[in-house]
Amino acid sequence: MDKVKVGLVGVGSISQIVHLPILKKMQNVEVRALCDVDETKMARLLEKFEVPNWYRTPDLMIKEEELDAVFICTTSHYHFPMAYLALKSGLHVFVEKPIALNAPDAKKLVDLAEEKNLTLMVGMQNRFRDDVQILKEFMANDELGEIFYIKTGWLRQWDRSPLQPWQVKKEYSGGGVVIDMGTQLIDLAMYLTGMPEIERVRLHDYTLNPDYKVEDAALAVIKAKSGMSITIEVSWRMHLERDMVYTHIFGKKGSAYLNPLRIHKELHGNLVNVTPLLQNQNSELR
Question: For 105-116, what is each residue's pLDDT tens digit?
């Protein structure tokens, strides 16, 4: 079987720690080229991951290589133009979140992918965790009943490492902690509930660090047309001793909790823990 030929743009930490090690383990994938401007870093990575070619610009990589797909793992402001270039060139695209800095650009990418019958995938990896897949099946089978409330949050502890300079400049990041971490929680809640139609959203945002040009803490309240409510709280750095990551889901017949997975149902008038056993439960968000 022919291997899927992949080029990867942006060789920061997410590429080095996650994407390249996983891609290199896949028997049906061949990483043909890397694209980045950092020569020192690139030489080491080409050798470590046994990738034959290196380019400074994605347009040259796409022109010179016979690729099937491109992974875009750059800083956020490059996501839209690079994804658009790859799709225009007839290539499938995986792009790290956020897909773009605004909704109109995101829609342009979706429309272009549909027009060309190409796959466009955003890095919302939490959908594919074992615990999330089990919970998704429970909810699809109406085990929890009608979902009326989801409460989710991701608050990072106080002694976290500093952010990258581009992350706190809106022109490069598109926003602050909501577009960085909140999108993962929003996607998870929407995915588990079947992408309900949203009626209204209220956002309370805060800037705790006066040097930041974007919000570094926020609380969002989302109301679906079905009547379901979702609350989301996120922060890059709160006065906490440890990270808080949680998702509570409440239905009319039961409830569920993620990190770790717990499922409770009302059976014969009693609250019963019906959580299935997982051999290797990975509940980490990133």
Answer: 999 999 999 999
